[in-house]
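Supplementary Methods. Inverse-folding protocol.

Structures were first reduced to a discrete structure-token string of length 349. This string, shown here, constituted the complete conditioning input.
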């Protein structure tokens, strides 16, 4: 077999390339410009079966869509798992040598890349989140302006347009008043943009069959359903609920050592419980926010409230009970989406 194992170290202006053959021998390296035509010429110029890899980053989605149809296997690897690249000296040539070795040895952890018709929804969700963050930043700056002058501004009254003049008159300094007026104009503009992109996002979300399925779960609103679909793309990328919990940041990390011992020549396993080290730190923050919010709402009302009260009656602390509820909602969401079934509260027990 004439296999080629190609590693790319992608940068804004250039891409370093390293190639190994089927025996693992490092046979070629090159540096090309970060352009589609240069990459395609390189891939088409290599003979044999091409296995290609590069790290997840800003340009990884573009590179995957561009190169995947032209290679036998395209692995977008997780840079957080490539500790081997951090050892010793670092450089473009060194990185592609190490990365191609990991690809040849089958030691890379892939990051999911796929397209099930959710590309438009993904972009709209990204835009919505960015605008909401910008609006929150402007609101925080506005409150900081008033608080810096000893003016109490709790709640959201300070943002209301009809009471804006009353707040502006409390600012004696002309510079502070002008700055507040500028922030108010930014806030008005962002409010219009947020509502517009929200309308487009929800309209696009309704084009997906999974939206009506996820919305049948009372703790998930229309925005949460759109975010889940845009983030996960398909539920079948997760083999079990435990993989989904890890992706959402709800997996419990445990540590243990010296788990077995011999007694009279027989092997036994120690009964001591594994030590917990909290939740996993490598997770999707959007999904964790969605299911944490769903757990908070579910603990107050709806079909999940009796389950939450039962957890509290067992002696669980509220935070741990909400975590358990969030894991349950995430597991139910995954099963509903996979089976294409709407939520049935009678199956909770």
């Amino acid at each position: 077999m004439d296999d080629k194992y190609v590693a790319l170290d992608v940068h804004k202006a250039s891409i370093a390339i390293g190639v190994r053959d089927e025996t693992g021998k490092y046979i070629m390296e090159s540096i090309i410009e970060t352009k589609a035509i240069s990459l395609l010429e390189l891939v088409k110029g290599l003979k044999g079966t091409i296995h290609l890899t590069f790290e997840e980053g800003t340009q990884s989605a573009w590179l995957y869509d561009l190169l995947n149809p032209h290679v036998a296997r395209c692995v977008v690897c997780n840079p957080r798992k490539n500790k081997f690249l951090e050892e010793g000296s670092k450089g473009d040539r060194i990185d592609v040598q190490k990365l191609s070795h990991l690809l040849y040895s089958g030691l890379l952890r892939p990051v999911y890349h796929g397209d099930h018709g959710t590309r438009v929804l993904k972009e709209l969700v990204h835009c919505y989140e960015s605008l909401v963050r910008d609006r929150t930043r402007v609101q925080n700056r506005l409150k900081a302006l008033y608080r810096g002058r000893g003016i109490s501004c709790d709640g959201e009254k300070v943002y209301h347009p009809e009471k804006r003049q009353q707040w502006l008159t409390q600012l004696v300094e002309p510079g502070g008043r002008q700055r507040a007026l500028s922030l108010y104009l930014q806030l008005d503009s962002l409010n219009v943009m947020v509502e517009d992109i929200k309308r487009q996002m929800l309209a696009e979300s309704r084009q997906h069959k999974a939206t009506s399925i996820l919305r049948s779960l009372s703790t998930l609103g229309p925005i949460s359903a759109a975010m889940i679909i845009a983030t996960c793309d398909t539920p079948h990328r997760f083999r079990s609920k435990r993989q989904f919990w890890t992706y959402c940041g709800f997996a419990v990390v445990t540590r243990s050592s010296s788990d077995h011992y011999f007694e009279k020549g027989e092997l036994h396993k120690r009964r001591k419980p594994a030590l917990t080290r909290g939740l996993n730190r490598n997770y999707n923050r959007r999904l964790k926010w969605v299911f944490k919010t769903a757990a908070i709402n579910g603990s107050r009302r709806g079909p999940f409230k009796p389950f939450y009260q039962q957890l509290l009656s067992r002696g669980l602390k509220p935070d741990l009970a909400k975590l358990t509820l969030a894991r349950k909602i995430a597991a139910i969401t995954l099963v509903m989406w996979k089976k294409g079934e709407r939520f049935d509260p009678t199956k909770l027990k």
